Amino acid sequence: MKDEFSLEGKRALITGAGRGMGRSMALAMARHGADVVVAARTQGEVDAVAAEIKDSGRRGFALTIDLMKLEDIEPMVKKAAQLLGGIDILVNNAGGSLATNPADLVKTLQENLTLNLVQVACTNDAVLPYMIKQKWGRIINTGSGAATRAGMCFRHTPRPSMAWSAIPRPWRRRLVITKSMST
Fold first, then answer.
1. Helix (H, G, I), strand (E, B) or coil at 148
2. Distance CA 75, CA 145 (A)
3. Fewest Cβ atoms closer than 10 Å to its Cβ: which of 55, 62, 117, 151?
4. Tens of pLDDT along 89-140?
5. Residue 24, burial from CB neighbour count under 10 angstroms (0-12, 13-18, 19+)
6. How many CB atoms lie within 10 A of CB 40?
């Protein structure tokens, strides 16, 4: 009987994978057979996670990226696809609440929306051509309860899991139909 949780032969890219949920997901995917590129801002953290993946017998690669630099996203996805030979699974796990000058509401909104929505859309946009070409792919957007805790600088910051719902319904429907027709 086939293991229903098998990711054997799948290739995953996980953002925000240096620690916490991202690290845990990267190691779990590797345990279930996936090769994984872990991406985050801190080189030492992603190197350590990639080493753990390699120790588990899977291919693990580390990429350092600041997802606030939107121009770096497409090259990161391209490099991940080169390392893995394609991308089957994308996990958008990077996000959070950026504490900026509370007196500058516009800048705070722009930075938090870039971190939690715009970079997710850019990463999805960069990964989709690979998935459509191979006629298979999965995108997982994570969230956190941190946005509900009192004392957060920007309490109602949307997380990557909300990025999908922020896309107007007709666009979401067209994206799903386009992806479905390609599979």
1. helix
2. 31
3. 151
4. 999 999 887 776 777 888 888 888 899 899 999 999 999 999 999 999 999 9
5. middle
6. 26
